[in-house]
Amino acid sequence: MRQDDHDDGQGSIDFDGEGLQWQHSRTPHTPRRRWLLLGFLTLVLVITLGVIVDLQPIRHNHSLVAARFRSSGDYILDPNWDLDAAPRTRHYDWIIDDHDFNPDGVWRPMVLINGKFPGPLIECNEGDEIVVEVVNHASNATSIHWHGLFQNGTNWMDGTVGVTQCPIPPNHSFTYRFNVTSQSGTYYYHSHAGMQASDGLVGPLIIHAKGTQEKELQKVPYEQDRVVMLSDHYYDLSSKLLDEYLAPGNENEEPVPPSALINGRNIRKCSDLPNRNCSSVGPVGALFDLSSTSNTRLRIINVGAFAEFSLQIDEHEFHVTEVDGTDVYPQSIHRLNINPAQRYSIVVTPPLKEQNKSLYWMRARMITHCFAYENPELQEEVWGVIHYKGTEQFYNDTADDLTPQTSDWADIIDVECRDLNTSSLHPVQPISAPPTTDHFIHLRASFQIRDWRLSRGYLNDSSFHPTPKTPILHTLLSSLTPQTIPNLPNGTNTALFNPETQLVYQITGTPSITILIQNFDDGNHPFHLHGYKFFVLAQGHGYPPVDVQDTLDLENPLRRDTASVEGYGWLLIRFVADNAGVWAFHCHVGWHNEAGLGMVFATRVEGMVGWKGDERMKEVEGLCGG
Ligand SMILES: [Cu+2]
Fold first, then answer.
1. Using one digit for the tens of pLDDT, what is the confidence trace for 64-85?
2. Most exposed residue of 119, 196, 219, 341, measured as fewest CB within 10 angstroms of its CB?
3. Cα of 592 to ligand 1 centre, how many Å?
4. Cβ contacts of residue 219 below 8 Å, gap of 6+?
5. How far is the CA of 427 from the centre of ligand 1 (A)?
6. How far, in Å, is the centroid of ligand 1 from the Cα of 531?
7. DSSP letter string, 176-236
8. CA distances from 131 to 174, 175, 564 (A)
9. Confidence label for 33 from pLDDT (cuts 50, 70 and 90)
10. Which residues, in sequence order, are CB contacts of 551 under 8 Å at separation 6+?
């Protein structure tokens, strides 16, 4: 039965899918801490469900939810974009404010940019200058980080509270201003103040390679280009959930998200959520109108706080062509696993007309295996609709037929939380990794319960604790003079920072740095390095082979800015430390980052002399006064 007949917009296509049903247990969600206990039983269940459920077409006889999917112009890249335009400044005015909003039906407090969720699209050419004036009308302090951007020469615009800046207080404004150079592809921005990103402060940032380069770097031709943001979704403010998560006695039990969104949308059945203020009027599912005659590039971004997603479009294989801003030779897959803060472009080819269908489900599943407990409100899947324009003659225009009749892939879903296997993805622009390394840094990642029964994240013996009002950059700059530069030591800076709470690894020159992270925790950690792309040399489960450094393929490894170390696994990355500044290196699971799973690299420190008096730097320092 249809729950409402609300008409929600002009010029939009509404599919009131009478037949949509949500099957709540299509994938198993076993709390990871009970995995050993439930091991065999779960395995049997997984296989049984996989075989019985996955092979069945969508049924229409129960759990009916009146579902509406609306096509919208949001996050479609401009088809007439001028790739040859002279470099220009792109100016954005943002007002950040508190709002009550119900992206999936459930009302919750959020923090939004210009009242929009997710935030507005930033689209620019390589070489452009981005200027974003942020006016903070919200009740809490904020900041914006430009995820994956090198910020070469403008480290102070990185937007990381406690590392490069003080937060922007309520009723204050701050203007971010930086050039976008030497990179293109799919990025995003998000608040880097606490876990505000999870309260709504996220949005896409797309950089076009100049001229004909973009088409040359993308090896599968496409005509349409758009952004698909996936995110887990909570019903409470992150600050409230953080208090509970970080409280004494909580053994790193991350809050389990009850819901998930595609481009900020989902449709929950309010009767499933009796304890929530939920209204079905308003929310609409994401619908993507794609051309039926040419390919579409979908830039997938996981903007969520915690959950890894597995994304598929029923009955479609697609090509992966970009990873975190690195164009790669296409590889065909049918399920894309994406961890928080990662980006992948996929190019989708319309199916043959003989298939007689114009509507397909896009399914984004949260991989629930790494959730710490059962959340009764959890709906682990969010579905969107892919609609091929101009193919309406192939279906009857009745309500029932407007529900996609497509079927899931039959193969078993990978339940582990780990990165998509990227070992066979190779960049189109080849760069060899340095054959040797100048610094080898071994980080043991763990969660430990120490004083006051507090569980915290550790890299070796350090649990990062930011001091928002004294950012690391500012502290470091006060000590830098032309006289001190020649004698700067390399390694952990214990002179200025307490390594137990602020591990700052300081390096001069442009050496190659190799980091081996070994994970002694059962959780998955997508590590992100600010200011760089690193080479992903190897990753795996268990202990790294003793000769791992001798067996690496350094010819043209994947370059990205966020790579995961799986539970009880390891990750080996290398980068050339040529970007002057202080750069956070941290787990991008918001909860883990707040629990201290991070550190800072201060690189090419000699290049930072003179920043102290820089007029642009002074603006940032102004945020710390008062
Ligand atoms: Cu983590």
1. 333 467 765 689 999 999 999 9
2. 219
3. 5
4. 321, 327, 329, 330, 428
5. 27
6. 19
7. EEEE--S--EEEEEE--STTGGGGT-EEEEEEEPTTTHHHHH-SS--SEEEEEEEEEE-SS
8. 10, 7, 32
9. low
10. 545
pLDDT, tens digit (0-9, with 9 covering 90-100), for 167-181: 999 999 999 999 999
User: Whole-structure pTM over 0.70, yes or no?
Assistant: yes
Let me know: does 528 contact 590? Beta carbons within 8 Å.
no
Element (H, E) at 320: strand 318-323
Is residue 389 helix, strand or coil? coil
> Is the pLDDT at 522 greater than 70, yes or no?
yes
What type of residue is 146?
A: W
Spell out which residues have Cβ within 5 A of ligand 1, the ion.
525, 587, 589, 592
The pLDDT assigned to 148 comes to: 98
Residue 212 CA to ligand 1 centre (angstroms): 39
Instruction: Give the CA count within 13 Å in the CB-facing half-sphere of 241.
Output: 25
pLDDT band at 612 (very low <50, low <70, confident <90, very high): confident
Which helix (H) or strand (E) element contains residue 284?
A: none
* Average confidence (pLDDT) over 180-190: 98
Query: Which amino acid belongs to residue 621?
Result: E
520 C-alpha to ligand 1 centroid (Å): 11
Residue 589 Cα to ligand 1 middle (Å): 5
Dist CA 115 CA 97 (whole Å):
7
Q: How far is it, in rounded angstroms, from Cα 502 to Cα 494?
A: 9
Q: What mean pLDDT is reported for the chain?
A: 87
